[in-house]
Design brief:
- It contains twelve helices and eleven strands.
- The protein is of the alpha+beta class.
- The strands form three sheets. The chain has a six-stranded antiparallel β-sheet. The chain has a three-stranded antiparallel β-sheet with strand order 6-5-8, with no helix packed on it.
- The model has no long low-confidence stretch (mean pLDDT about 90).
Length: about 300
């Protein structure tokens, strides 16, 4: 089965993304992405897949996977209870970290870590315990402290002992082949045209399918209906623009593909429990508070 393309949305003003998700969750499927990923399991047990490797996991497992290496963690929940937080995930682009190494040769020792991650790295329980505090701190870190803790984490992992490489040397990811699959072409098209008027019937024609067949196909691959998936992409892009630009809210609305400002405000309020203007104001206050804290350190 061709892996599913996860669209990792690292904001323009950030070098990496760190977040948590529960279970079930839409990205919990056989998937890949061009970014590096560090994954810490915080709850549940189950079976995981990295390249051609499969094994069991439990809370405290720490794994790093390289670009385009397919992977998935499937939790076993006999009572089907939802889990609020299943893992902490850190994702960063190869371009960003390689530019950092070029600018600071002292970072060159992490290149081995990056190379080994092409097969997937399972870290020892002792290293996972050491890294847990760093990953949790990164969830709320800002400014220089955020970058410092990120690099300190990579430094720590690069010196880890007793690592296990997961995928066999013979396993080779095929990102061009993955991208050629119909669902991944559709997802890439959506990400590139969020500001356009996008209808499910138009994407069905793009995929060469009847509308009803496309609807079932899309939900089977993404776990959510087309409209819900598109709405989530647009909301994420809107948040990024509100945080990292001075564009008027009206411009943000139309740049993300919402058809009018009142509809944008209503959907934003439902998703974030506050209007866009308040969301932007809170982030500005948070950034100023973080800057003040840094001057006091």
């Amino acid at each position: 089965m061709s892996p599913y393309l996860e669209l990792v949305q690292i904001q323009e003003q950030e070098s990496f993304k760190v977040w948590t998700h529960g279970y079930p969750y839409e990205t919990v499927r056989w998937h890949f992405h061009p970014e590096y990923e560090i994954n810490l399991i915080t709850d549940t047990c189950g079976r995981y897949f990295v390249g051609d490797h499969t094994g069991t996991f439990e809370p405290g497992q720490l794994v790093m996977v390289g670009p385009n290496l397919p992977h998935n963690w499937v939790s076993e929940l006999p009572d089907n209870r939802p889990v609020a937080q299943r893992c902490v995930v850190l994702q960063f682009s190869g371009r960003c970290i390689k530019h950092g190494i070029e600018a600071f040769p002292e970072l060159g020792h992490i290149e081995r870590l990056l190379a080994d991650s092409q097969r997937g790295i399972l870290f020892s329980p002792a290293m996972a315990r050491r890294a847990t505090g760093s990953l949790n701190a990164l969830l709320n870190a800002r400014g220089f402290q955020r970058v410092h803790q990120f690099l300190a984490l990579l430094d720590m992992l690069s010196q880890a002992q007793d690592n296990t490489l997961l995928a066999t040397p013979a396993f080779r990811p095929d990102p061009e082949g993955y991208q050629s699959s119909t669902i991944n072409q559709v997802l890439t098209y959506l990400a590139d045209h969020l500001g356009d008027k996008l209808r499910e019937s138009d994407l069905a024609r793009y995929a060469g399918m009847e509308a009803s067949a496309f609807s079932r196909f899309f939900r089977r691959h993404t776990g959510v209906p087309f409209v819900a998936y598109l709405g989530r992409l647009r909301m994420n892009r809107a948040c990024e623009l509100l945080i990292n630009s001075e564009s008027p809210i009206t411009d943000v609305c139309y740049a993300c593909g919402f058809n009018n400002v009142s509809n944008f405000n209503r959907q934003f309020l439902a998703a974030k429990a506050m209007p866009p203007s308040q969301f932007r104001r809170y982030h500005r206050l948070n950034d100023r508070a973080a800057a003040v804290c840094e001057t006091l350190v």
